[in-house]
Specification:
By secondary structure, the chain is mainly α. It is about 55% helix and about 0% strand. It has 14 helices and two strands. The protein has a two-stranded antiparallel ribbon. Helix 3 packs across helix 4. The longest helix has 19 residues. It starts with a helix and ends in a 12-residue tail after the last helix.
Length: about 280
């Protein structure tokens, strides 16, 4: 036990040391205070670029949101939004979905991929909601993560957007961008969540997630970031990883930035006012 405690203390000290001094792309040391200021400035800039940032899954209540979020694994929000209208029209409540014919649910969910596993998850979480929570989606993290198919990421999506309780959504876009911006060197979602959360007031966590994810989907792409069209290029330590020519970069922009439809069939009015266009239903066009 003494050896283990010593090892744990060493790890804690190493983490604190790493957090205290970061290395920027230019090779200069960055204090913890400077990191916090830079991270918050990026978030402020993104808030000006995406004042209409929102969850890109269509939902009308917590039940629809938790189901849609589970279905969004390994597919696009657009495909989920095209699929869920048929699902919720036939099974509008947890009671309905819990008692459904699995084969009929599978057929509806087929377009989302991995439809058998997803059917098992959404029917399982519906059954759990009925049996353990009176058919209502719980508003606590510790309860949500007990539901089949619901992890911390899904739970924070639901808490932040259905219950107004702050949370950081660490999806693939969020992971990629916060590492590019050198907010953290962590690679595990729960550690990224903790590291980034420590840089911001808790009240900002939900909108921070939307800002970062919006930016990742529209401009700071995984394979070829549109650096030349990026509003935070002057303060981005990863500038130059993508296309820097402004005209070429513009051609890489997606959704309202590039004139394309968004992911939601029923987006918020603020998004439409900003020039965003709703997506089409499944099979349209």
């Amino acid at each position: 036990m003494p050896a283990k405690k010593a090892a744990d203390a060493g790890k804690t000290a190493a983490v604190k040391k790493t957090a205290a001094v970061k290395k920027t792309a230019a090779g200069k040391s960055e204090s913890r205070t400077a990191l916090v200021r830079r991270a918050r400035r990026i978030n402020r800039e993104l808030a000006e670029v995406y004042p209409y940032a929102h969850p890109e899954l269509d939902f009308e209540n917590p039940f629809q949101l938790v189901v849609a979020t589970v279905l969004s694994a390994q597919t696009t929000d657009l495909r989920v939004n095209q699929t869920t209208p048929g699902l919720f029209a036939k099974y509008p409540t947890p009671e309905n979905l819990a008692s459904a014919n699995p084969e009929e649910v599978e057929e509806i969910l087929r377009p989302t991929g991995f439809f058998r596993a997803k059917t098992k998850s959404v029917m399982g979480l519906s059954k759990a909601l009925v049996e353990e929570f009176g058919g209502e989606v719980p508003g606590r993290l510790e309860d949500l993560v007990k539901l089949p198919g619901v992890g911390r990421k899904t739970a924070f999506v639901v808490l932040g957007n259905a219950f107004g309780r702050p949370g950081i959504t660490v999806d693939t876009h969020f992971q990629r961008l916060v590492r590019r911006w050198q907010w953290t060197e962590e690679t595990e979602p729960d550690k990224i969540e903790a590291a980034v959360g420590a840089l911001f007031p808790k009240s900002e966590w939900t909108m921070l997630s939307h800002h970062v994810i919006f930016h990742g989907r529209r401009i700071c792409h995984a394979r070829k970031p549109a650096c030349g069209a990026c509003p935070i290029a002057p303060i981005c330590p990863a500038y130059g990883e993508g296309e820097t020519d402004p005209e070429k970069a513009k051609k890489l922009l997606k959704y309202e930035k590039g004139g394309f439809p968004g992911q939601r069939l029923n987006p918020p009015q603020s998004y439409l006012d900003a020039g965003g266009r709703p997506a089409q239903p499944l099979g349209a066009g």
